[in-house]
Amino acid sequence: MILAVVFGVVIGLSTGLLGAGGSILAVPALVYGVGQPMSTAVPTALVVVAASAIGGLCSRNRLQLVQWPVALVFGVAGIPGAIGGAALGRSLPQDWLLLGFAVLMTVVAVRMFRGGKEHSGACRTPDGEIDHQRCLPRTAAAGSGVGVLTGLFGVGGGFVVVPALSILLGLTAPQAIANSMVVIAINSISGLFAHAGAAAQLDIGVLLAFAATAMLVSVAAARFSERLPASTVRRAFAWAVLAVAAGVGISSAIGLATA
Question: What is the pTM of this model?
Fold first, then answer.
């Protein structure tokens, strides 16, 4: 229970400050820290991720930045992918799934080290407005890909959503973070429904401690996000993700070698 609270603080901080990254640690924390199997850790992580995203979004400034047509198309497009990803995850052995998760974590860490740039073109009109209709196909395609990752690994996909919103639509960093939280919440809830069969296995005590802590910390972190250097926070978190990825990769590789 104590570990669940500690991990909830970390995930809430990342989601509230960066709009991404926190969920990538939720499954390893539950598997290696709390001792849950992947079949239980993934749906538990999805509840935690949804809670932290909703918490990070619950501020007036963040809500005003949301481009609802973009966020809803991105999120809804991920629902079929989340269902398919969940079905694929149930068919894979745990060690193979964890090894794939370690690879994904490494990609996320590298992406966080590199940071992101704001784009003024992409789907913007000459007067600076966003052309939602012109960006619809690319937004839907990106949403579908994120949905697969959500269902397969129990991640919200913010590390993909934030740069995608910036590159595809030219959103500013605060806008991309606010919109990503809507997408993460939709993806996580749809992924949770795809894992509904595992509901009986959930440890409600751990779930509530983890999710409540992540949500509360995310709300608090969102209020201070504009006062902290995002690049410093992002790099520090990237090192943590990379370290956990190494541990997960080694552990799963050993499990495969001794199987």
Answer: 0.71
